[in-house]
């Protein structure tokens, strides 16, 4: 069957449908194809300073923090993030704002005209499309979130001004390996010789530093070169001659510390007062995002053990204030579902499960079985997040906090529900 190629006057939805089907695989590791197309379309070099941001968790919040602090100083910034929650346009921001559909259509059309016979995956189209948009807008800085791993991810074709690794944990084991050492080695592939490489993980695998030393990367490491400590008022960040204390932010302190260290290393750190102002306004969609005050409803993209541990900390603060916690969980089948459930189980009073839909979706009945097995707690199952919320919200009491989590798809469904 021949797939009709969209035109420059086609809709963004038409283009996205085309991109989803034009390559036989959702993921194909390797840089040769995407490098070739980047060179053909003259996207392989850019005057913008690029900060590559890899890690298992925390890429989005670290990027948002960097974006806020750079914009506050008058720099122009392009940010590329994935996946999106509700609309594809969320993936590319210019100076903190999403773009119209035509910007993306124009970029995809240019790539389609220039790729020749080389096939690209959906993510590779998106990455090159973002680079095309950033080149067109001639931004000062590009914040590029790494999609999967690092070494063979499409974003790794660029020459970074600095590379950042937020955290290292087990995820995508079929591609990255089943130990933190293997995952760390893959993520360290975004390092470059004699180039700043900031690592925010609190227990850095030796493979990261081994590789950094091997290529002579200019490494700045958490718990060696910089640190953050929790205080009664919030947290204290320390790096070289900097020692600042800030109120508790809406994103993980560890990621704020990593972002601040990155800018300090690059001699781009704003004043303490400006940092304080930026942090007080910082919010990232889908990261313990409040959807409703009455009833109290939050949603979070936590989908692996590390992110579940952070979510548990946030929920524990409600438990300490006397609230009950009702969890609605919906996940993808290839995630560490049992470990995620176990990480939060001691703060959850009531469980509900929902099915997601799509080729990687997990069914509610399988999640129910895991909840019963690991918590000895019964839970209701629902066909989808919408049906679950219709039932749960109708009977939720004021003394209960509902947390909806387990996947970006789960959060997207929750946000759409509230937008209605």
From TrEMBL:
One of its GO terms (biological process) is tetrahydrofolate biosynthetic process. Pfam families: Mur_ligase_C (PF02875), Mur_ligase_M (PF08245). Pathway: Cofactor biosynthesis; tetrahydrofolylpolyglutamate biosynthesis; Cofactor biosynthesis; tetrahydrofolate biosynthesis; 7,8-dihydrofolate from 2-amino-4-hydroxy-6-hydroxymethyl-7,8-dihydropteridine diphosphate and 4-aminobenzoate: step 2/2. The keyword Cytoplasm does not apply. GO terms for molecular function: ATP binding; dihydrofolate synthase activity; metal ion binding; tetrahydrofolylpolyglutamate synthase activity. Keywords: ATP-binding, Folate biosynthesis, Ligase, Magnesium, Metal-binding, Nucleotide-binding. Residues 286-407 form the Mur ligase C-terminal domain. Residues 53-263 form the Mur ligase central domain. It catalyses: 10-formyltetrahydrofolyl-(gamma-L-Glu)(n) + L-glutamate + ATP = 10-formyltetrahydrofolyl-(gamma-L-Glu)(n+1) + ADP + phosphate + H(+); 7,8-dihydropteroate + L-glutamate + ATP = 7,8-dihydrofolate + ADP + phosphate + H(+); (6S)-5,6,7,8-tetrahydrofolyl-(gamma-L-Glu)(n) + L-glutamate + ATP = (6S)-5,6,7,8-tetrahydrofolyl-(gamma-L-Glu)(n+1) + ADP + phosphate + H(+); (6R)-5,10-methylenetetrahydrofolyl-(gamma-L-Glu)(n) + L-glutamate + ATP = (6R)-5,10-methylenetetrahydrofolyl-(gamma-L-Glu)(n+1) + ADP + phosphate + H(+). The keyword Ligase applies. It comes from the Bacteria. InterPro entries: Folylpolyglutamate_synth (IPR001645), Folylpolyglutamate_synth_CS (IPR018109), Mur-like_cat_sf (IPR036565), Mur_ligase_C (IPR004101), Mur_ligase_C_dom_sf (IPR036615), Mur_ligase_cen (IPR013221). Its EC number is 6.3.2.12, 6.3.2.17. One of its GO terms (cellular component) is cytoplasm. Functions in two distinct reactions of the de novo folate biosynthetic pathway. Catalyzes the addition of a glutamate residue to dihydropteroate (7,8-dihydropteroate or H2Pte) to form dihydrofolate (7,8-dihydrofolate monoglutamate or H2Pte-Glu). Also catalyzes successive additions of L-glutamate to tetrahydrofolate or 10-formyltetrahydrofolate or 5,10-methylenetetrahydrofolate, leading to folylpolyglutamate derivatives. NCBIfam families: folC, PRK10846.1. PANTHER family: DIHYDROFOLATE SYNTHETASE-RELATED, FOLYLPOLYGLUTAMATE SYNTHASE-RELATED. Belongs to the folylpolyglutamate synthase family. This is Dihydrofolate synthase/folylpolyglutamate synthase. It comes from Pseudoalteromonas amylolytica.
